[in-house]
Amino acid sequence: MDAADNPGLPLTWRDGYARLGPRFATPWQATPLPDLRWLSVNHRLAQDLGLPSDWWQRPGMLEVLGNGRPLPGATPVATVYSGHQFGVWAGQLGDGRALLLGESCPPAGNAMGPQEWQLKGAGRTPYSRMGDGRAVLRSSLREYLCSEAMHGLGIPTTRALSLVASPGVVYREEAETAAVVSRIAPSFLRFGHVEHFASRDMTDALQQLVDYIAEQKFLQLPATTPGRERALAILDAVVARTASLMAQWQAVGFCHGVMNTDNMSLLGLTLDYGPFQFMDGYDPGHICNHSDHQGRYAFQQQPQVALWNLYCLGQALMPLIDDVPATVAVLDSFTPRYEAAWQQRLCAKLGCTPSAQAQALGEDFLRLLARQQADHTVAWRNLSNAVRDWSGSLEDTHEFHTLGEMVGQDATWQDWLDRYLLVLIQDTDWKPSVQATNQTTSGVLAFHARGQAMRQVNPSVVFRNHLGEIAIRRAREGDTTEIETLLSLLSSPFDDHPDMTSYTAPAPAWAQSIAISCSS
Predict the structure, then answer these.
(1) Do 476 and 376 belong together in one domain?
(2) Does 139 map to a domain?
(3) What are the catalytic residues?
(4) Are residues 356 and 503 in the same domain?
(5) 488/339 Cα distance (integer angstroms)
(6) 492, 432: one domain
(7) Segment 421-471, tens digit of pLDDT
(8) What are the two backbone dihedrals, phi and then psi, of residue 30, each rounded to the nearest 5 degrees?
(9) Residue 132 CB coordination number (10 Å)
(10) Handedness of CA 213, 112, 51, 488 (dihedral sign)
(11) Are residues 59 and 39 in the same domain?
(12) Bridge partner residues of 375 (DSSP)
């Protein structure tokens, strides 16, 4: 970057992962796109990074985040990794359309810590194979909005700082225009980075990678010594983070769509937004990726697939750990960790203290949703509101009437509701008579507080496919207002949005025709 074009941001730039050397990353330049323009900038993330309000208007920033112009002190690189795709070893992969610009060191007092800046769609790299290295507006917009939606939900994720558009043509199923999304994360390291060096018997490089991960403090590891202890500690941390992430995905009905090992983050982040979907009608067997013909990555399969991927990671670390029983013990801790995290999430959604009884109620509620394919997000939000507004009498359940209509007003529903209300009464340590018609103020307040707490884990709005489709169509016509509306809504998903009911309502019938695949 020329001195005249230095944007003068209050950040220090350095080579992060790139400093490991040419075995890990290849210095590379982006292929410029014509006529770049800002489509959207994420001011919330910019503020978190400590950037000034006019950061995006400063000379050179559009070229940095659209065409990968090098930052002072950092060398753009494409990283190499390998991995399993749809359960089959795919060999060498790598950043085929991503370019790591460098690592930013925040200003003093900033809580975010060092962050890697990466462009997606910046052109071909040495790892593009048969690809063009580009990303289309459609997929870039989806990732830009969904990563912020996940952040709003409190789910670990990479984030997106900007969306840059170009009239340059990219061919997928049809001719589309190009876009570049800038992604921010402490690290974009994947399971596949570890698999790459293990598969090539490059034990010294594998050790170098493990030491880098430990020294960067990504995983907040306990004090370890290089070698077996450090590699095992990393595996344990990744297992714990992945188990937590899977419970969070399942709790909000998020389908990733393509959980290959090269799409799994070592930091437990949601990574690579391709054929993702927040479920509309609840169906545990839902397959959101139209390229997934065997249903490998169906919604209910995600925790088990995560465990399969972790076994691949454990195998890749074996040259350093060299202890099969210890490795298997760490890997086998995934299931109890996931089950504990899932119970906690599910019971919080119900407003109940975690217990086997409460978890059974939660699983039964999901079965009620599944039999009618009731809207997942709306049903849980309605349940929260019903508890918040309930008078406390078992005879007075009119607030649950709408929810009953969603899941089917029959004996199964009524039985579940009776059991649920009794558990809530017991959970609040409040013992009104079953026949009581006038409840104490303290009891009503107890349920109000319980419902309010449920509303902080059961969102009113998620990034549904049809909302993304509307934003895409309008953006293609030059109207970016829908992007900004969604960016604002998705940053506060637990708030009520009474004037935005079209965003919080169940998906319209036409949304069923939206097809998403690996090109999305």
Answers:
(1) no
(2) yes
(3) 262
(4) no
(5) 33
(6) no
(7) 989 888 876 554 444 444 456 667 778 889 999 999 999 999 999 999 999
(8) -65, 155
(9) 16
(10) positive
(11) yes
(12) 281
